[in-house]
């Protein structure tokens, strides 16, 4: 079963270490393509797009691993499939989004998002019966699933629409910064049951959510309000900048 890692200290598994090596290989391949070692050099704007996209994808899986990863057979198979999809990303880097490899890159990105959608959907089903006690975990996972579905739809559209493929890729990158786990958990932990934020160190090792956590104090609530306001302001600023870029 999927369970939240309640301990402050968690060691990386061998699966995660190997997964990071695959990411390093893909990024190295991206650098080789930028230098033009295997063909025409990749444009700098496409290099920036791909490197930021890979970072966003790594961040998504890293947040999932921090919260729910353990070294069982399910997670080994899940990350093995994810690594295979990641390898296909490295196979379609040359030429950029609007080249003959662009469609393959869109499908590769789509596959990566669908894998994480499956992982978070499993979290949703696991916590649905206890959603009242685990309010933040459940609703954060629900909304992550929603945004992963949105990612998948955009990448599917990008597969068919060659002319707007680069813009579709940038769209996913920009709004994924505005829908991070940190931002979502702040929204759903505010004013809810006494459950600490998922990525906070506000409860002792081995202690479950909402059990003895000092999240009802005035100081804790004040910090959450301030963080939520800062997060909302940052979201709007990022969105406005993106609109300005698209319009200009």
UniProtKB/TrEMBL annotation:
Q: Is this entry keyworded S-adenosyl-L-methionine? A: no
Residues crossing the lipid bilayer are: 73-93, 105-128, 140-160
Q: Superkingdom of this entry's organism? A: Eukaryota
Question: Is Nucleus included in the keywords of this UniProt record?
Answer: no
Protein's recorded name: Uncharacterized protein
Which of UniProt's keywords are assigned here? Membrane, Transmembrane, Transmembrane helix
Q: Which InterPro entries match?
A: Low_temperature_requirement_A
